[in-house]
Design a protein that fits this description.
Layout: E1 8-9, E2 14-17, E3 19-24, E4 28-33, E5 41-44, H1 47-69, H2 93-104, H3 114-125, H4 130-137, H5 142-168
Length: about 180
């Protein structure tokens, strides 16, 4: 929720993560720095996502222009995620919106934060190393990543076993019988 359009570099295909959006009853929505130095990071984004962001940015500009002309743009800022009046979106909005989206699209339940875990699990399943995974998620220590997602290593271990079974122990039809030739 802290992302701003200035954090996106379309040329390099990267996004800079350097702030968060928080909420306190006394102050409302406010911006803050990320938790740790490692949380402050630049990550590469696939080209198809960058194209989606470009399209979203164009749509947001059109939306803001319509609101500005109608006199309903209370605040104009650089945030990716804004309310109808242009103010920054409340940090809890995606969490509240997500279950409705899943139900509307007949998708299985997973909590919004679970998407972060899904991303980490996918990186591990694709064979990316722990250091890369920890860095992309902003973990200060790679063992945090390892402890959180170690269940994925168990499934990889089982996959190694299955592969070895196929490779070293073919079915009886395929098995060659070696006999010692007597001289």
């Amino acid at each position: 929720m802290g992302l701003e359009w200035s954090n996106i570099d379309y040329e390099t295909g990267t996004i800079k993560i350097n702030k968060t959006s928080n909420y306190l009853k006394e102050t409302g929505v406010y911006e803050d720095t990320v938790k740790t130095d490692k949380s402050n990071r630049v990550i590469s984004i696939p080209p198809f996502v960058m194209q989606l962001l470009k399209a979203y940015q164009r749509e947001q500009q059109l939306f803001k222009n319509e609101k500005r002309v109608a006199g309903k743009l209370v605040e104009d800022n650089d945030k990716l995620f804004i309310q109808q009046n242009g103010k920054p979106m409340h940090p809890d909005t995606p969490t509240k919106w997500w279950p409705k989206f899943l139900e509307k699209n007949n998708l299985p339940h997973v909590n919004f934060h679970g998407l972060r875990h899904t991303n980490a699990s996918m990186m591990m399943a694709m064979g990316f190393d722990i250091v890369t995974g920890a860095s992309r998620l902003g973990h200060a220590r790679k063992d945090t990543f390892l402890n959180t997602y170690s269940h994925m290593l168990t499934s990889k271990d089982k996959a190694v076993s299955a592969t070895m079974q196929e490779f070293f122990n073919p079915t009886k039809k395929q098995r060659k019988v070696f006999r010692i030739k007597r001289i």
